[in-house]
Amino acid sequence: MTTIKRIVSLVLTLSLLLGLVAIAQADAATKSISVAIPSDPSFTVDAIGDSNGLTTSLIREGLTRQGQGGTLTLGLAESYEHNEDYTEWTFHLRDSAYQDGTPVIADDFVWAIGAQLDGTVEVSYPDFLFEIKNARGIVRGTATVDDLGVKAIDDKTVVFEMEYPVTYFPQLITHPMHFGYSRASAEKIGFAEIGLEADAFISNGPYYLESWVHDDKLVFKKNPYYWNAENVAIDEIIVYVIPDESTRVNLFLNGELDLVDFDASRLSAITAAGFEPLTYNNGRTTYVSFNLQSVGVKNQKIRQALSAAIDREALVAGVVKNGSTPADGFVPVGLAGDDTRTFRDIVGTTLNYPYDEARAKELFQEGLAEEGISASDITVNFLTSNATENATVSAAIQQIWQDTFGITVNVDVLDSASYRTKRTNYEYDACFLSWGADWNDATNFLSGYEQTEDHNPSQYYSEAFNEAYLRGVYNTDVTARVTDLGESEAILLEDAAIIPLYYTSQYYATSSRLVGTERRAVIPYLDFYFADVK
Amino acid sequence: MRGAVKLKKYLLGRVVVALVTVFIVITLTFVLMHLIPGTPFNTGNTNMDPDALAQLEANYGLDKPIFEQYLIYLNNLLHGNFGTSITYTNRSVTEIILRSFPVSLDLGLRAMIFGIIAGLLLGIEAALHHNKFIDRFSTVVAIVGISVPSFVLGTLLQLVLGLWFSGWVKTVFHTDFQLFPIARWESFRYTILPSFVLSLGSIASITRMMRSSMLDVMSQDYVKTARSKGISERAVTWRHEIRNALLPVVTIIGRMVGNLCTGSFVVENLFAIPGLGKYYVNSVTARDYTLTMGLTIFYAIFIVTSTLLVDIAYGFIDPRISLAGRKR
Fold it and tell me: If 0-12 CB within 10 Å is exposed, 13-18 middle and 19+ buried, where does residue A394 land?
């Protein structure tokens, strides 16, 4: 026994000594925080970095940026103006520089946006840029990059021409695809090499990437040339790549991370350790989309009935359990409306078929009569993916529909790649979906249902929807356009082409020393720009 | 001299078989990957712009007929080109392997060394003290090692040793030093928990194998003869029992190399170790054709080579085994 005691005491003494050395090495003057992301980030020209968009927001800045409490502030632009019909936006750049001291110039934007459209750099969603004049044409091959509606008047002035009035353009350009990148740096690094390593990217944001050990650790240091460097409080941000959520939570509880996102199953562990669980609305709507051609659900009344059968309050409280709130429309809460109010504040509820079991059954019978079928004829193949809570929630909905209507619902749980293919090919009757905002405007959600000759992202076609939607898009009155878009949303939900379920929330907790963290409904969902450590 | 010629001939034959094996693996994986439904693209909620999608597919040659894609792939492979990953834009498959494999190999070797030492010791002790406490203990270890999944054990150790023990050290000694860090891959102490978790399965199988092999040898006539000749007990144990009992165990150690050193998805994921394991699993789920192909070929080559090496090592350990066939 004494030998064991001796070994234990030796080990503990050694650990104590090593610990003291470690403490002595720490520099008290540097304000440093640590966070974790689930996978190695990507810093290609179009990338948001990690799933929270944090890492890209550290090393890149757009002309505008998301501010505190849902506001919009200026980024690399010191001012901007637009013409009367919002088809031309002019931005005046500040004096700011990349991490190597090279000044930020208007051409950075011309190059970066053009490169994403003409195939110089690989992007998945060039559609994000299609509001810019000739952007679609460049992708289609009917225009060249010289025709692009982004022009540098001089080093400090960049002008964007639009395809149609874009009143929300300052919001749109907080997405990294609208950011600039130095043409000279890109040519030096090589187009296909941009962002692959720490030294293959130059930052024009508040931080720069000092070191990057893949799948492991990234160290971000303050960019001294950044225009607002004096107001950036935190000197160093260490980002660890930790794939497993339980590991991230344990690291947080052990004081190694300053912030952690977690799901409902970790709530008790977080609370037990004395941390306050926080939630934020992450600008995401979870909904069911229908295959409008399939026998069981092609009837509008049946789809309305399927919507009215779902008790969304009970669903979020009993099944989802992550602070999500019942949806009363498609565009999520927190998305911008006019200058002062959010979209939902202005439009209100558009969910015409909320929970009402009696009405659901009534609508269902009417639908059956219209189609001349009976409940037993209906089999709904319900496609869902195995990501997060999707399968559980889908199973709950299956139960509800079967119990309410006596129909057959088969849940098809697939891995995300197979799910995507089946969804793209409409190999489903109903499909479980969740969609988050890429830019802070309702068009982000509604544009998926507009159908024109060369734009048909979904099966849905409604003249009334198209009319209301396009009226909204072309309306240059910032409040009236929201009302128009709200009208198109109401048409979509009256047709029950989709049925919204809930607006998703995310749990998170921060260390007691970290203050001023911004969480919001659009990218970057996590932002330390205004943060400080006590 | 004749032996050396025979060995050369044998090796040549084995290399040819290995190449054929790898070729079959390439072809099968290629066909299977393209047979499973799914696309690496179209991650949004509405359909991608058709021209953008076409451009992406063309970038990766996915617009061509499947047989042509196969020929192009083989041709690239012959030029040592594994291609670029589809999900990790612009990152070459070779780069990912070169960066991640050394970490997986490091972890695998640690787990193997620990597993072999602990497994052999436990197995030998159990056989020598048949039906005593240590024997029963080894059975418990074997059962636990085989039945408890590594993510359960790993999570438990992270909680007990990584979180609670460190917390206790912190309050008692006022230090942030962690003997068992929760995750990541830095200095030696970071490697303890993941290596142990990864080795547990091998400990279990080696213990069981060594124990039964020892018991078998111990009842052999030549052991009795040796003992009756008056050779010391220690010498009997070492020279006659353990040495002969080791042979079957070498077989499973050979198999373990392939299993442990190519990266464990679960252990690497849980302990945030930048190894190859997660790339393999994630690339299949994401339908990253090039990455899956590259990793499969790499694994095939690695396993074929390590099997060959183990077979050669056999000949040295047991002179009765002749690689080049039985001598007349």
Answer: buried
